[in-house]
TrEMBL record, chains A, B:
Keywords: DNA-binding, Transcription, Transcription regulation. Coiled coil: none annotated. This is LacI family transcriptional regulator. CDD domains: HTH_LacI (cd01392), PBP1_LacI-like (cd06278).
Amino acid sequence: MGRRRTVTSVQIAREAGVAQSTVSRVLNGGSVSEETRRRVLDVVAKYDFQPSQAARSLVGTRSGLIGVVIRDLTNPFYPVMVKAVERVLHQQGLRLSLVTDVMTPEEGLALLRREGVDGVVFTSAVQDDPLAHRMLKHDIPVVLCHRTLEDFPADQVEADNATAGRLAADHLLSLGHRHVGMVCGSAGASTAQQRGAAFRDRLRAHGDVTLTEVDGDYDYATAYGAVRTLLSGDRRPTALFCHNDIMAYAALNAAAAAGVRVPDELSVVGCDDVPLSAWERIDLTTVRQPLERIAQVGVELLVQRLDEPDLPPRREVLPVEFVERSTTAPASRI
Amino acid sequence: MGRRRTVTSVQIAREAGVAQSTVSRVLNGGSVSEETRRRVLDVVAKYDFQPSQAARSLVGTRSGLIGVVIRDLTNPFYPVMVKAVERVLHQQGLRLSLVTDVMTPEEGLALLRREGVDGVVFTSAVQDDPLAHRMLKHDIPVVLCHRTLEDFPADQVEADNATAGRLAADHLLSLGHRHVGMVCGSAGASTAQQRGAAFRDRLRAHGDVTLTEVDGDYDYATAYGAVRTLLSGDRRPTALFCHNDIMAYAALNAAAAAGVRVPDELSVVGCDDVPLSAWERIDLTTVRQPLERIAQVGVELLVQRLDEPDLPPRREVLPVEFVERSTTAPASRI
DNA sequence: CTGAAAGCGCTTACAG
DNA sequence: CTGAAAGCGCTTACAG
């Protein structure tokens, strides 16, 4: 109880025999004589003085805090994303304020505003995203990473999801699959829309292919259930395109539970290429998304915007890459 | 550029026709007449006013921020831990400030001090942990979750790791394994020490068993390499106890890469029981650690200590549970 | 119950 | 180059 005794710049100043404003100038790179600087820094070092971030952001124009909005941290996709974002932020001297699904969007918005974040990185925006629109309304810079929104006046970075869907379709078609299933991501997610549309178009253009779509909501349990149902039906597909890796893992596991052999009886293609996918026990054929790059470009766009708020909104689309592993095989094997 | 125009309590006060201190009282539950309260809350609602956290923590005695120190977020163990901690903190109205391996311990310490965290949750302390000791020296309350330290005057919560090691040993012994390998966690980690010692003791007590130990450093890549080497040697063990699940996955994958069949040629036991372990493609025999409980008890201990800093340090040990799945089998099968 | 005032620890013009 | 002073947006005694 009572406040912890912390050294302040006033005490540093007193001990160094200078004004408090001089300490501030030394720490923030103002013009100070070499001797004064040395004297102050000695005292700073002696106490390992750290200026209060609260005081700084109260008086300054920046808090140095960036909100990072994700969904479920236990979905293997997000740790990779958060880590990449965190790394870039840290290089820029910025701190991260995490908003996840342990709170409601309203609570998240309130927290981010109270904390006075300089900007927000969204990684899982959905159409009509309540949080994203309201941040913008509050005049807080926003960048959409990974998932994007139509007619949303903010910077956006995404993978070339249309190509991802097309590559997946071409691969399965070339293996001779003619009865195909698609495990879709959340309806409001741009990634699901783009990947799904491109995949669908490609099959349609090819002709002579049956496509069955089920909803996996980008969620392991949902996808697991959907695939089990799909596999127990009488018109079982010979191949599955899943809109992300986590749902592909669900498909792999559901197939195992149903006694359906992969890839002999069922081919599975994912999307993202999370590190797990390269494990021998998984070894998932998938489309790699440049996650590190997306995070890096996203944070860079945001940081630029902090300096120039009136820049027109920019959109970056980053290339994907097909990664063939062992969960796909020719349809003829059956 | 220029500060964003944010509504402040002064403006709320002006519009409600009261003093600024009255707004503060309404928001913090001071004594205010029903009518005044209503008038203020109307204006607060109109602007969706959020009091500045920076100002609050500058003047108040608490920042409401709790540091959470982990290592690598992409190790599947930590997202589960962080999520559990975050959930409990959020229930308590506290915010989390994440420190990971994207920064050095020194940088982490500096950040946590600048931010004025009320306390810190450590999830991966090691003996002589530089950060943990220095936090305490700076008089900041600390709780050690999951991993603990000898002679460290702070609250600590951990699983019953000795029992975990014993259960793993008993299981493998009862299956008839007499040439056993152990993939150890980081030398400085209490979990590795306790699990390792109990496992070792049990084998020694049984007698007639060869134990080969390798270092996996609680790291996927390190464990993978160590197991590959172990499996290519001439005295290949028939069973492996890995000090955590992530290293067990590495063992499973290394075995697959080496063409060693699990469980027929090699039994593998992990420790932790992360959600991944239940996947059909993994289906790992392991010892479950009550992660949610550890997080919850840890945060509770910390929150109590914020109110009563002079409480003697407490230590909680939570029970583990053996989970038999399909990565273990009798040694006689070979 | 309510208001005026002090003060938290800084940054940033403003003088000198 | 350096110091004195204002002020960021709150909470918390202190009067009334």
